[in-house]
Write a structure and sequence with these properties.
Elements lengths: L6 E7 L3 H11 L6 E5 L7 H4 L17 E6 L5 E5 L21 H5 L8 H11 E3 L13 E3 L7 H12 L17 E4 L4 E2 L2 E2 L2 H6 L8 E5 L1 E10 L3 E10 L5 E15 L2 H11 L2 E2 L1 H7 L5 E2 L11 E9 L20 E5 L10 E6 L8 H14 L6 E8 L7 E3 L10 E3 L6 H19 L1 H4 L2 E6 L7 H11 L1 E2 L9 E2 L8 E2 L8 E2 L1 E3 L14 H17 L16
Parallel strand pairs: 1-2, 1-13, 2-10, 5-6, 12-26, 13-27, 14-15, 24-25
Antiparallel strand pairs: 3-4, 7-17, 8-9, 11-12, 12-13, 16-19, 16-22, 16-23, 17-18, 18-19, 20-21
Helix pairs in contact: 1-13, 4-13, 10-12
The structure holds flavin-adenine dinucleotide.
The site of flavin-adenine dinucleotide (FAD) has 39 residues, from helix 1, strand 2, strand 11, helix 7 and helix 13.
Length: about 550
Amino acid sequence: KASAGQKYDYIIVGGGTAGCVLANRLTADGSKKVLVLEAGGMGGDMTSVVPAGLTRLFQHPTLDWNLFSTKQQELANREVYLARGKTLRGSSATNPTLYLRGSPADYDSWGLPGWSSKDVLPWFVSGETNSKGPSKYHGDGGAMKVESPRYYNELHGAFFEAAAAAGLPQNPDFNAWNRPQAGFGDFQVTQWNGRRADAFAAHLKPAMGRPNLQVVTGARTTKLATEKGSAVRAVGVEYTIGGPSGSRQTAELAPGGELLLCSGTAANPQLLMLSGIGPAQQLAEAGIPMVADAAGVGQNLQDHPATLWASQMKPELEHIAVTSELLTDGGQIKGAFVNTRGDSSDPDLQIRFVPGYALNPDAIQSYIKVGQLRSTKQKWPAGVTMQLLTARPKSSGTVGLRSTDPFDLPKVDLDYFADEADLQTLVAGVKTARRIAEQSPLGRHLSQEGWPGASVTSDTDLEAYVRKTACSGNALTGTCRMGLAPSDGSVVSAADFGLWGVSGLRVIDASVVPTIPGAQTGAVTFMLAERAAALLTTGTPIATAKGAAAGQLA
Ligand code: FAD
């Protein structure tokens, strides 16, 4: 637990992806006392370190929060599982490690000073050490390790050839912004020598011995403590070690100290609301005394909804597919981005190709089943899968409170298909997958379509299939979005991550992303945490801050 009588310059709530970056950067010069409170344990066991352990991380009893959405009417009344890492290093320790930034337009469309593609690129570059070596788009001196995927299966080659035959261009580097994102190719990964390079390995591990850094695991923050003088100010936190009936603790900020909220897109709104910071009406309904009326808290939840297409293999070719339990690299390291709308905008569909057969049309349930194969002694049928994700969704949902008990999980309403276009992308996605699979380089390997099944052809039937099977693309963002002023519905300032109306409190993680990029969301989280850390250590405002590697853009 936090040291008795100690006051901190920074208390970081949540030792996840963003929390690890901040803890490292803020303690580097030794001048600031920093406390990290992480609800999960230390982590770092082999299930997580070896990327192939992915199948065992979903719904893991200790490394995952086991969070589910509310019943989603438009998804055949299902509660959708939302994987979230519960360990020091957060979801960076439980994800399939794909490293993608999205496209320049993803950032330009935010319309926020300091956050255009030109502004963010130097931070992506300076934050990484990439196996591709240094270039305009890649760095070789950053803390985060990125490499090209090592695993190659004959079926990957067949997928690439089939995608080309279906008319898709090849994209040699999805993170190079000198060409459109559309095309097929390798997804780079946050791994090094084939091992997961998570936020702890990149940032916290080298900092752990610093005397000015204290990391407490198993510490669930239950409330942000504030004081109301002429203005509202964060003064510390309440937390519990050892579950609901465990030991209750407090940690205090030193004068001028700050609370950095990094507990992620689902937990942040819950913690804020439990602390009286949120939409006035919701606070009143929950009987929580209002500290600050922050209408945007919990709004603007975005994710990449996903479905899949899968086919079995011809028996004589079965040996090519992955049928052993261990999927190298989590199996989805190659794929494509496709614009199914036929206009000039960025792709609305991401395809993640897996040289193994999905055991369930819900991709996450399929992984869980694959992980269970050994214990049930079942054979894994050979085949291929294309996971299909709405890459740039227009819909948004909300995060709120289920109750005022901080040990309850938050109430998450995804509302995936609030905008019909997001459903249509997945319907078009199944058709696109079929078009690629029909091409002879891939088609010659395949026998029978398993999901959705050859009889599911009409748009009505395809829509029903998507609604019945859609799962999370594990990219929750946006519930504390950054903006220009409280009047635009934002929660924090895009200039400094400060929460409107409360001093000494900043939100720094995936929850501040205003609009989800067409990419998995680890990269954007690392980038914005690096920027926040530079702001806090140098005091340079975001809008005029130059990336550490800005020179590389010249
Ligand atoms: P997290 O990294 O989740 O950190 C939040 C931390 O806060 C956690 O450690 C949590 O335990 C802690 N916490 C929560 N509540 C409390 C509390 N009350 N008190 C104390 N601590 C608390 N991104 C990619 O780039 N590539 C991928 O391939 C990819 N696939 C994904 C697959 C899965 C299964 C998941 C879950 C995510 C995936 N992502 C991927 C997304 C990416 O991992 C996240 O966007 C990113 O890690 C979010 O970082 P964060 O700092 O916002 O939250």
